[in-house]
From TrEMBL, chain B:
Keyword Transport: yes
A Pfam family matched in the record: BPD_transp_1
Name of the protein in its database record: Sugar ABC transporter permease
Membrane topology: Multi-pass membrane protein
Subcellular location: Cell membrane
UniProt source species: Candidatus Caldatribacterium californiense
Length: 279, 294
C-alpha cells in the first residue's frame, strides 16, 4: 500500500516537473530565438529561424553596436539610472524619517498626499509636464530627467521607508541625541544603516524602472546624443526594419546588461520586488 | 542645534529633511496635475502663448471622440483578460513551485526573467516571433492559424498583446503568490488533510481564503499595469493594424503629441485617471470585505 502510494507520488512529481519545464521552455524560447538568429543574415533567418547558426559571426553585433551608438546609449542609461536612484534613496529616506518621527499635521498631510498621488497615471501628467518644462527650456537635458525621476519616484520610496522606520525602536536615536548628535547626524549614523534592506528594495525597484523606462525619456530627451538604451533600440528598429539579423543583435545588446545584473543580484531582486509589492 | 519647538525651527527641520523631495514632488507631480486640470478648461493648442477659458467644452469633445471610446472599450477588454489570465497562471505556477519540487529556485528565477526587460524591447522581441517565426511555422506545417502574421490581423493582434502581457506579468505575480503560499502554516493544511479534505477542497477552503491579502495585491498591481500600458503596445503593434489595438494610454499620446489636440488629450487622460481611481477603490473595498468575512 505504502509502496503504491509512493509510486503514485513519484509519477505525479514527474508529471509536474515535465509540465513546469515545458512551460519554462515556452517562456524562454523567444529569447533563445532572438539570440540564435542574431548571428545569421536575413536569408538564413527567413529560410529557417529554428536552425542554429552555421558559425557564430559577430558581424551583426559589431554593426549594431556602431549604428545604435551603443557606448553613448549605455553610458546615458547608466548615469541616469544610477544618479536618479541615488537621489531618490538619499532624499526619500530623510523625508520618510521626518514623517515617521515627527507627526506634525503638515507632515501627515504631505505623507497622505504622496501616497494618494501614486494613483495618478503618468498619462494624466505628461502633457502639462512637457508644456511647463518646455517653456522654461529645460527639456532635452539629462539633469531634468533625473530631477523628474526624483519627483515621480519619491512618493513610493517615502512610503516604503516610512514603514521600515516605524519598526525601528526610538531609543537608539534618542540616546544618540542626548549624547549631542543633531537629528541629522542621528539619522545618518544610526537609522540609515539600519534601513539597508529597505534601501536595497528601493534601489532595485528604481533601477529596473528607470533603466527600462521609455515614455518619459522619449518626451524629455530629444536629441540622439542624449538617448538612453531603450530609446536608441527603438529608433534603431525604426530605421532598419528589414535587416532582421542586425535588429536582433541590437535587442541582444540591449538586454545583456540587465541579464548580467540579474545573474549577480537574483536573490536581492526577487526579494526586493516582493518587499516592494506587499507593503 | 535649532529647537524643533518653535515654528521657525520646525520649518528649518522640515526643509532640511523633506525640502528637496517636497519641491521635486510638487513641481513634477502636483503642479503639472493641477495645470492639467486648468488646461482641459481652455482651448490651448500646444503652440499659442495665450488661451481662452472654454469651460467644459473639451470634456464634451471627449464624448464626441469615437476613437477614444473604441480604445477605452478595448482597454477594458484588455484589462479584463490580462488580469484574469495573469493571476490564474501566476497562482498555478506559484502553487506548483512551492510544493518542494526539485530545482524550484531555478524555475522561479526562469519564469521571472521577462520582468527584467522593458516593454519596448519585449515588444520588439515578440514582433519578431509573431511576424517571422510563427509565420515560418505556419508555412512549414501548413497551419492556417499562423500562415499570416498575427500582428496584421485586428483581432489576433489584440490577442498577441494579451499573450505577451500575460507572459510578462505572470512571473512577477508568481513571486508575490509564492510569498503568500509560504506564509500559510503547514499544520493548517495538514489538519485539513487529516479531516479528509481532498486537494481541491484544501485549495478552496484553506489555501485561497488565507491568500486573500496577496490576491488583492496582485489584482491591484495587474489592474494598474493594464490600464497604463504603453511601451508594449507601441513596440508590438503600434496600435495597428488600422488602430485596432490602440489602447487608451497610446490614444492619449497620439491625440496630444501627434494630432496636437493637447486639451482633448489631457481631458481624456483624466477619464483614464477617474477610471483607475474608481476601479482601484472598488477592488480594495471588495478585497477588504472578503478578508473580514473569513
Amino acid at each position: 500500500m505504502a509502496q503504491r502510494q509512493r509510486y503514485r507520488e513519484g509519477i505525479l512529481e514527474v508529471l509536474r516537473l515535465s509540465f513546469l519545464y515545458f512551460l519554462l521552455v515556452l517562456y524562454l524560447i523567444p529569447f533563445f530565438l532572438v539570440f540564435v538568429n542574431a548571428f545569421k543574415d536575413r536569408n538564413q533567418i527567413i529560410a529557417n529561424p529554428f536552425r542554429l547558426p552555421s558559425a557564430f559571426h559577430l558581424a551583426n553585433f559589431i554593426e549594431a553596436f556602431r549604428k545604435m551608438n551603443y557606448p553613448y546609449a549605455f553610458w546615458n542609461s547608466l548615469v541616469i539610472t544610477v544618479l536618479s536612484t541615488a537621489l531618490i534613496v538619499f532624499f526619500s529616506s530623510m523625508t520618510a524619517y521626518l514623517f515617521a518621527r515627527l507627526p506634525w499635521k503638515f507632515n501627515r498631510f504631505m505623507f497622505f498626499l504622496m501616497v494618494a498621488s501614486m494613483l495618478i497615471p503618468f498619462q494624466a501628467i505628461m502633457i502639462p509636464l512637457v508644456k511647463i518644462y518646455g517653456s522654461f527650456g529645460l527639456l532635452n537635458n539629462r539633469w531634468t530627467l533625473m530631477y523628474m525621476y526624483l519627483g515621480f519616484g519619491c512618493s513610493f520610496a517615502v512610503f516604503l521607508y516610512h514603514g521600515a522606520i516605524k519598526s525601528i525602536p526610538l531609543e537608539l536615536e534618542e540616546a544618540a541625541m542626548i549624547d549631542g548628535c543633531s537629528r541629522f547626524q542621528a539619522f545618518f549614523r544610526i537609522v540609515f544603516p539600519l534601513l539597508r534592506p529597505t534601501t536595497t528594495t528601493v534601489a532595485i525597484l528604481d533601477v529596473l524602472w528607470i533603466w527600462n523606462d521609455f515614455l518619459l525619456p522619449s518626451l524629455v530627451l530629444i536629441s540622439p546624443r542624449n538617448r538612453t538604451l531603450p530609446l536608441s533600440t527603438y529608433y534603431f528598429y525604426g530605421t532598419y526594419t528589414s535587416e532582421y539579423g542586425l535588429l536582433l543583435a541590437s535587442l541582444i545588446l540591449s538586454i545583456t546588461p540587465v541579464i548580467i545584473f540579474y545573474l549577480f543580484m537574483q536573490r536581492h531582486i526577487i526579494r526586493g520586488i516582493l518587499q516592494g509589492s506587499i507593503k | 542645534m535649532v529647537s524643533e519647538k518653535t515654528l521657525f525651527g520646525k520649518i528649518g527641520t522640515y526643509l532640511l529633511f523633506a525640502g528637496p523631495t517636497t519641491f521635486a514632488f510638487f513641481t513634477v507631480v502636483i503642479l503639472p496635475f493641477l495645470f492639467g486640470v486648468y488646461l482641459t478648461l481652455t482651448n490651448w493648442d500646444g503652440l499659442s502663448a495665450t488661451y481662452v477659458f472654454v469651460g467644459l467644452k473639451n470634456y464634451r469633445m471627449v464624448f464626441e471622440d469615437r476613437a477614444f471610446w473604441t480604445s477605452f472599450g478595448l482597454t477594458l477588454r484588455y484589462v479584463a483578460y490580462t488580469v484574469v489570465l495573469t493571476n490564474v497562471i501566476a497562482f498555478t505556477l506559484a502553487y506548483l513551485l512551492t510544493s518542494g519540487i526539485r530545482g524550484q529556485n531555478f524555475l522561479r528565477a526562469g519564469f521571472f526573467v521577462p520582468n527584467l526587460i522593458g516593454g519596448i524591447v519585449l515588444g520588439l522581441i515578440w514582433r519578431f516571433v509573431f511576424s517571422n517565426v510563427l509565420v515560418y511555422v505556419g508555412k512549414r506545417f501548413g497551419w492556417e492559424l499562423f500562415l499570416r502574421s498575427w500582428l496584421a490581423h485586428p483581432d489576433k493582434a489584440f490577442w498577441a498583446l494579451v499573450i505577451v502581457s500575460v507572459w510578462q506579468s505572470s512571473g512577477y505575480m508568481m513571486v508575490i503568490y509564492i510569498a503568500g503560499l509560504m506564509g500559510i502554516p503547514k499544520d493548517l493544511v495538514e489538519a485539513a488533510t487529516i479531516e479528509g479534505a481532498t486537494g481541491l477542497q484544501r485549495l478552496r477552503y484553506v489555501i485561497l481564503p488565507l491568500l486573500t491579502p496577496f490576491t488583492t495585491v496582485c489584482i491591484f498591481l495587474s489592474l494598474q499595469r493594464g490600464f497604463i500600458v504603453y511601451d508594449l503596445n507601441k513596440a508590438l503593434t503600434e496600435g495597428g493594424p488600422y488602430k485596432s489595438t490602440e489602447l487608451v494610454a497610446m490614444h492619449v499620446y497620439e491625440k496630444a503629441f501627434l494630432a496636437q489636440q493637447y486639451e482633448i488629450g489631457q481631458s481624456e487622460a483624466f477619464f483614464l485617471f477617474a477610471m483607475i481611481v474608481g476601479v482601484t477603490l472598488a477592488q480594495v473595498y471588495l478585497g477588504k470585505r472578503l478578508e473580514v468575512e473569513q
